Structures are given as C-alpha cells and as structure tokens.
Task: structure prediction
Amino acid sequence: MAAVSPLAPERFPELPPIGGVSLASAHCGIRYKERTDLMLAVVAPGSAVAGVFTRSLTPGAPIDWCRRALRRGRARAVVVNSGNANVFTGQRGRDAVTATVAAAAKVFDCDDREVFVSSTGVIGEPLDAAKIVAALPATAAAARPDAWAEAALAITTTDTFPKGATRRVELGNRSVTINGIAKGSGMIAPDMGTMLAYIFTDANIAVTALQPMLAAGNERSFNSITVDGDTSTSDTLLLVATGKAGNKRITRADDPALRAFRRALDEVLIDLAQQIVRDGEGAEKFVTIEVSGAASPAAARRVGLAIGNSPLVKTAIAAGDANWGRIVMAVGKAGEKADRDRLSIAVGGVQIAEKGGPVPGYDEGPVARHMSGRDIRLAVDLGIGRGRWTVWTCDLTHRYIDINGSYRS
Amino acid sequence: MAAVSPLAPERFPELPPIGGVSLASAHCGIRYKERTDLMLAVVAPGSAVAGVFTRSLTPGAPIDWCRRALRRGRARAVVVNSGNANVFTGQRGRDAVTATVAAAAKVFDCDDREVFVSSTGVIGEPLDAAKIVAALPATAAAARPDAWAEAALAITTTDTFPKGATRRVELGNRSVTINGIAKGSGMIAPDMGTMLAYIFTDANIAVTALQPMLAAGNERSFNSITVDGDTSTSDTLLLVATGKAGNKRITRADDPALRAFRRALDEVLIDLAQQIVRDGEGAEKFVTIEVSGAASPAAARRVGLAIGNSPLVKTAIAAGDANWGRIVMAVGKAGEKADRDRLSIAVGGVQIAEKGGPVPGYDEGPVARHMSGRDIRLAVDLGIGRGRWTVWTCDLTHRYIDINGSYRS
Result:
C-alpha cells in the first residue's frame, strides 16, 4: 500500500460485532504477493439483502450475477477478491463466477443465489477462480465476528487506507448496529451504483423496506462523489440485515419506526463515500461543493458533479488557487439552467463572486488561507430555484498521473 | 510562450493573401508584457459571415454580442484580444464589448453589427476596453493582406504554437482560397462551438449557404476534439466570405457546385482542430479514436468522447500502456448501447480484444512499439450497428497539472 493519504482518518474505527455476521480474509495469490486479496462475510441463514450496482453498460461478470441473485433477496455469504476485476473476460469470466458461487454454496449448504460475489482490480485478465475455490473452506472456518479491519483491508486495490464506519441506533425498542466497509480510490464517479461497499446490520428489516432505503441513501452518498469522472464496471453496494437484534420485523420503507435507522444508515453511507474521496488517487485536498438555487435537486447535483469533475477546477484547487472563473466555466458546461448574472460563489464562507462579476474588494486573505488548507468548501448559488445538493470530490495532483501511469506495470 | 509542443507541425503554413482580407496585430497591454494581444481582421464591405458559438450556459459577453450581430449576416471587422476572456464580468463586460464595437464601427464607418469581437484568457477579471479602443486606429492603419502568422500569434494564450491552415479549390470556374487561424490548448471540449477559429475565403457565397455548411463542418472537426473535457465559455468559430474571387454567387448549401469547396472547408476545419489537440496542455501524444459499429453516428461520437475524456485512458496512454481495460470502462460509462460480448478493440492496427475478452496470444511487440510513439490510433468496434465517428484527443501528463496550477499566478 502506498503512502497513506494526507486526508485519511486518524485510524480505522472500532466496528462492534453484529449478531449473525462473521468475517475473514485470506491471501490466495490472485495478483498481490504479500497481502490479503480475499474477503469473506458469512451471514446468518435467512438474512435479507438489498443492493445497488453500476450503471455501466460493460459491467463485470460478478455484477451480472449479483443482479440475478438479488431477485431472491436472501444472503448467506459475500465473497470478494481484489487484484482482478473479472471484467471483459467473456465466458471464462462467467465460469469463474459460477465456480466461486458453487464452492461457497457448498461450504455454507445454501442456495447459489444466496452467495454474492465482487471482484476489483485489473480489467480484462482472466480470473483464476480455482485459487478462490481452494481457499474458501479454510477461510470460512476462520471467520470471526471481530475481523472488520482485516476484511476492509483485503478488498483494497490502489486505496491507501481501509475504510469503515459504524452507527448504533434504536429500532422498535431494540438497539441495532450498522457497520459498513468500503474500498475505492480511482475510477470513482458512481452512477446509480458505487464502488465496493458492504453494509451489515442486525436489524430485522425485510427486503421490501431495505431496498428502497438503500437506493435512496445511495443517491446522497456514493452517487454524490467523484474522484476522476470515470465510472467503474464493478460498482457494488450491498446491505445485509441479519435480523438478530430481534426487533419486530419491519416491511415498509415508509414505516415511521425506521426514521432513526434511516438517518444512521445515511450517515454510514456518507461517511464511507467521503472516505473514498479522502483516498482519491493522489488527493491532497478534500472538497465539499454545495450547490443551491438550482431548478431541482437533480440539477444541483449535475452542476456539482460538473464542477467536481472539471480537471481545470481540480488542478486549480491543488495549486491553492481560488479560481472561481473555472467554477463559472463548469457551471456553464453542466447543461443545466443557469444565469450568469444571478450566479454567486463563496469559497470557505467568503462571497467572492455575485451577480455576474467578482465582489469588488472582497478580502482575499481568508480565502487564500482557506485554499491552502486540506478541507475546501465551495458554495455555488445559481439563483434560479430551490434545488440544492452536496457533492464531494478531491483535487487533481501529479500523483494521480503517477499512480495511473504505472498501475498495471 | 512555453516550450513548443512535441506534436506541433514543423512550421506555420504559408497562407496566401485573400482578396478583401487584411490583418494586423498589436500590443495593447491587457495582460501580457512582451507579446501582442490584439488581432484585427478587416474584410471588404458586404462580406458574408457565418458563425458557431459555445453552448455554455455561462457564455462571455462577446459571445452574446456575436450571436446578436450574426443575425445581420454581414462582417466588416473582427477584433480579438487575448489575456482576458471578458467572461462573468457583468455590466462592465457588456460595456467593454459595446465600447470596442463602437470604436471599430467608427474606424471602418460601418454598422455596429458588422463588428465581431472575441476575448480569450482569464475569466472574471474586468476587461479594460479603453486599451483596445486606443489601439484600434493605428492597428487598422497597419493591416496587411499577408499578416496571417502574426494574427494567429496574437490570439494565443497557453498555446505553444500559432495555428493556421489553407486550401485552394475551384468554385464556379474561379480559383478560391480558404484560410483559417485558430487558438486553443486547454478548456477544450467544444460542444456545438469551438475554441477561437476564424476562417476567411474570397468565395462568393451567401450567408444562407455559408451558415449550414459551417455548422456541418464544425460537427466533424471542432466538435470531435477534446483536451480536458472542459467546455469553454468563449468558443467561437467564424467564417467570412468576401466574394472577391468573383464566382457566380452561391445561395444554397446543397448547390452541387459547392462540393469541392465544402470538402476543402472541412479539411481546413479538421486541420485546425487537430492542431489544437496537438497543442493540448501538456500533450505528448496525439490520439485518434475511431469508433465504429455504433447504433448511430451520434452514439459513436459520444463513445469516442467518453474514451477521449477519460483521465484513466489518457494517463495510461501517457505512460505508453495499451490499457484496453480502461477503454472498456469508458465505453461502459458513455451511456450508449454497447454489448461487452461484441466489443472489439484495436491499438495501432493490432486487434487486442474481441468478443468480451482479450485476443489470446496477440503479438504485444508491435502494440508496445506503437504505444511508445507520438501518434496513437485506437479503433473500437461496438458490434451493434453502422454508426461511425472519429474523435481526436491527447494524453494527460504532469505538464497539464503544472500549467493549470500556475496559469493565473
């Protein structure tokens, strides 16, 4: 793993055990020499599962499988390998998924469709599933309820730190826990999907409530981040509910009892999404872009992502330059309703442009100090309507080019 | 001007004089200290003019003016300054355009709407039009028919070489000439517009034929290039026809007599568009992306631009890595119909991936040699339909970040 991102959290958070979930990692030698590359999550029989996947039109074989398996709505195991994405690998790729799923179903004596698989790493190289199949029984035997950190580590690729988040919340007079782990650093511009993220809870919630809740939370978290505008072929977000907390089963997403749970779930999703941005390839600054005054929330998000994806905005931020002219450019290219003469822009809380021009004599000192820091806040008001959205991104630095010019070699 | 791009043509081409066109440049001190920053093209009274402009929703004040003036379809002068884009400058920006236009109209004793203006450079700083107004009379007096190279130089910003192209063609038994100059290096992702490009011809063609011909030519040239996916607020393409060649006036774009002229015009447009890519900020490789087998030509272009805009594809090319997995990713995110199992990819003429997987045992030697060169050819066949399009781009290198982290300082 490369030098840890300067934006990384101080440490991996303490993720408590969750009833009905145990984890393990292993080294099965897919690509990396001296680190783990296989993650296994075993969940209690009967666990409900919801999922959101990449909208890429060239998805990997594991995505095709997960979409099919998800129709059943039950999970028993999640098997993830790093080092090879099993994408654009044709029939061999499909065979690799089939072999992995069958082997896991045998180990856990469950239906094939209760096994979810993900692969992340290089695209286009055949995945040797035999290595995973061979490692599965011993890995399953080693699964423990407290192996969150090592599970998070096993799924990383160009990440510089493992990513986890946890919340505890009351649900129907029971205390329930939500734990999540995620990976991601480059090829991050999720589009109705995410990078790899796995959320587990002991809450007793049926798929009928789980899926809409996850899809909604995904919009304001993973679908609101970008590192480089490149959408992965493998984006996967799974939420597994074991029901072991023993609360009265909840079957509807609009059940008022879910309010606190939903908020906690959203927090976990946003926390993990932000960690992915904080580990953006080459990132040295974390950027929050708040767009308001748009024609709709969706318009605000598109404008925010246009700003967050602009290489000119991102290189200016890397250089500590409050170059709001480039923000204007990005707003203009977003294709959403905008009026140059109503637009206003604030950097670090200081209004620097409004009504079609720079604010005369604004105080440049605090803006320059803000831009030299790690946490950059841009606020753009379009002055058109009431739509607002927040997008997170990072700057574009020389290290992005270093990392991506040498990833395969 | 920075070190000349390694992809630059050997020299600025010999642009012959065109009846009814004279040019001049001047230093009026808008931003640069020791170079020209004002370009003036004077054209014969009654010249017809066609134009295409940025689709940005935050265009500069000069764009607003040109759109208005174009309705009249007549040109007498084109005034272009570099160093300041006059974008997001509010009422002061509009006033600067009005002052410049009025001064030029007075010098040439013409209607305001026969004066076209462009500005390129930093966004958001007030443009001091008084400097341009003061310089105009002497600049006009100095205009000559052979000043193409200095005109092309005066409009550059981060460009490392001036850009020009010329063709001569028969039209109605007369020999007519088409000359074009252009500028552009970063913020290049024209969307129904271009960077700054000015085409002049002595052909006698009415606006009714000129405008549709220019709009069509623009699609396959400037609208098919990208450097960084950032669409400028100032993109402008003008075509002026003085009629001095004396051919019988042509009034319809579908006039068969125009066939050779149209082909020559397209060549000039593509030549200039490619020169802009060859001067892409930090570019070290020129990349041609041929997409075929798409559902439609428009779909092929969108897929081509998704590949050409992908920072992961562009950094791989910079590193000489034939990373076709990233091309698959970019095809997948383009949002156009694609089928992983029908996709095929060739690099430098060597088929390396087909039918959902890598070509077994393809010869890596020629591919590696091709990738180490300056001219990279990618061919992607989607295997869906008959739509094809060619897109040009460049690689993404450290110098892009250097240039854009320091442009304002």
